[in-house]
Design goal:
Layout (H helix, E strand, L loop, with lengths): L7 E4 L1 E3 L17 E3 H13 L3 E3 L1 H10 L8 E7 L3 H13 L5 E4 L1 H4 L14 H9 L3 E4 L7 H5 L4 H20 L5 E3 L7 H7 L5 E3 L22 E2 L6 H8 L3
Parallel strand pairs: 1-5, 1-10, 2-3, 4-5, 5-6, 6-7, 8-9
Helix pairs in contact: 1-3
Length: 247
């Protein structure tokens, strides 16, 4: 079982190829999107290569309950922030290949309460509920997309982190009727002090790395420090295939 390696791909936005809001891609700077054609190429390659998708609930059971995946080629596909173009563009493509994913939702964004984050439209609770009915899973990503370490280091920071986590947890439960046990750190902003608080609410937590290198998860991986590979337009087709070919 220790030989099994599970990559987690982390996407943020999947734009239609002709979307006029697609930002310019600048080498060396952060990129938060891929285009429809690139995403479709990646999903086709994963399917042709024999990968099967799992959610973070499956990862949790694997790590805590010793679920035997029988040497399958497994991959988790994540979408942070729950942008609407994930529902409109990525979801239909993944459905073609029988793939499912995990969306990590910012609860105030899903409720329409963060205008500063609405440059790119977000899914609402109805969209998220639809994904649940199709076998996807919903994880937590804080109430306001807060960088938790930075928040922790402010006055009464521990209390503020508690509010960010509990508010997100309770809103997801209220609107979707699920008790999500899976969390992702906004921007990968993590330290051990914040992790102590996260453990009060969740059974797994996922980090975020702004690169695409072979950081895979094994049965020995700390459930609160899951690794992910950031996928953007800066990831070339060759890079994508070369890194994941190792699985």
């Amino acid at each position: 079982m220790d030989a099994l390696q599970v990559p987690i791909l982390c996407y943020h936005r999947v734009h239609k190829d002709d979307d006029p809001t697609i930002p310019e891609v600048v080498p060396g700077e952060y990129c938060g999107h891929v285009t429809e054609s690139v995403f479709k190429m990646q999903m086709k390659w994963l399917a042709d290569s024999g990968f099967q998708t799992i959610t973070h609930m499956d990862i949790m059971r694997w790590l805590y309950e010793d679920i035997d995946f029988q040497e399958k080629k497994l991959i988790a596909i994540d979408f942070d922030d729950a942008r609407l173009n994930v529902f409109e563009v990525a979801f239909p493509i993944m459905r073609e290949y029988g793939f499912i994913g995990t969306v990590f939702v910012v609860s105030e964004l899903a409720s329409g309460n963060l205008p500063e984050m609405m440059k790119f439209p977000a899914m609402n609770w109805e969209h998220l509920s639809t994904l649940l009915t199709k076998g996807w899973w919903i994880g937590a990503h804080t109430a306001n997309h807060s960088r938790l370490v930075d928040l922790y280091n402010t006055d009464r920071g521990e209390e503020k982190v508690e509010i960010e986590l509990s508010k997100d947890y309770n809103k997801i439960k209220k609107h979707l009727g699920i008790e999500t046990l899976n969390f992702a750190y906004p921007q990968g902003n993590w330290n051990e002090q914040v992790e102590v608080i996260v453990r009060k609410y969740y059974r797994t937590a996922r980090l975020w790395h702004n690169d695409f290198s072979p950081l895979f998860n094994t049965h020995k991986t700390n459930p609160y420090r899951l690794n992910s590979l950031n996928v953007s337009m800066l990831v070339t087709e060759d890079n994508f295939k070369t890194v994941l070919f190792k699985i």
